[in-house]
Amino acid sequence: MQFQISHKPSFSLLKLRLGPGQSIKSEAGAMVYMSSRIGVETKMGSGFLSALSRKIFGGESFFFNTYTAPETGGEIGLAPDLPGDIIDLDLNGKSIFVQSGSYLASDPGIQVVSKFGGLRSLFGGEGLFLLEISGTGKVFLSSYGAIVPIRVEGNYTVDTGHIVAFENSLQFKVGKAGGNWKSTLLGGEGLVANFTGNGTLWIQSRVPSGFISWLTKLLPV
């Protein structure tokens, strides 16, 4: 499988060239275009309960689409709903946790399972469930705005809405952005995730809620 990510970081498009019989699994609704004779198979996530939790709590689609090229190969283009970046990661048997909405596509053998993030993720505005993505192969993540990798060694603090993904070697706790609740509620920063450990964290440079708040102010009363 060959791929190219074009129009980064604002309006990224994932272009894939599939060899004979090769497949790519994607979030439902991500397909932009594809060449003729590519087969499409729609399935639920890793079991009914996992698929249901992804839909209700994780903000993800109930289904995955798997696209398989014919004997002559084929091309397919994928893109997320929101304008922003796309990155590729090689998992190589490792696992990462991904916020709802940031999974775009992966090799068919990659596992995507909903995991309970605890009340800390609910209060952090990211939903009750995170996605645990594991296996060997490529995974493609998307964002609203540019994606910035951060190497965490010890401690790091990030606004909860800016989290895209993080390695499972990192732990986090949700807390106040300021020294007290007044600063947190009135200072415009909301809640933050305090990460500890050693690993990579990926953040997005913008959050949809910020754009929605700005747009709402322009609407007529």
UniProtKB/TrEMBL annotation:
InterPro entries: AIM24 (IPR002838), AIM24_sf (IPR036983), Trp_RNA-bd_attenuator-like_dom (IPR016031)
SUPFAM superfamilies per the UniProt record, alphabetical: TRAP-like
Pfam family for this entry, one: AIM24
NCBIfam families documented for this protein: TIGR00266 family protein
Full protein name: TIGR00266 family protein
